[in-house]
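If I may wish for something, please sit down with the protein I am sending here and say whether tokens and residues agree:
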Amino acid sequence: MSEIKNKKDGSIIATGGFKVEDLVVSKFNNWKEDKDSKQWLLVMGYDLAKIEKVVALKITGSFKSDVQIQVNIFLKELMEVQNISVKLASNEKGFNQLDKRWVDNYAKLWKWDNSLTEIIKKFTGEDQSRDYFTEMSEADQKVVIDWFQKNKILVLCDVFKGRGKYTAEWMLVYRKLSSGEILIVEF
């Protein structure tokens, strides 16, 4: 992704992501006529003939999930809830920011000690200077590598799925084409 030069650029990118979330909600709420949402429901394991109703809602706040769908099944008096993380890849290379917390928030979440927190702050530039990984001392590199190797499943789950009641079970990726059209890449 081209580098974000200022907060305005970041705001434009975020607005594009919000529009895609609205599009996904609209498609699910129109599932009987929308071929994409029918396909998504099939991928999620639903028998379309047994679906009575689908209600899609946009999730607000700091959660991994962006959209929640509630699926009512005929004859079972059952409502299933699925949380979906919606990602917009803004260019042909398809890069996207998955998580954007401050280092101190990661430190608290993953119980980092002060040493690891300070190393990561230098790497991200949060401490006013920025060290590339190869510029760090071998000892600091080892601290980072050892921690991430030991905790890679935790990190992947938190970054992709999140925690709590809005944990994302699914990820829907869209790509914005140069024509401005939005293409579904993968569910």
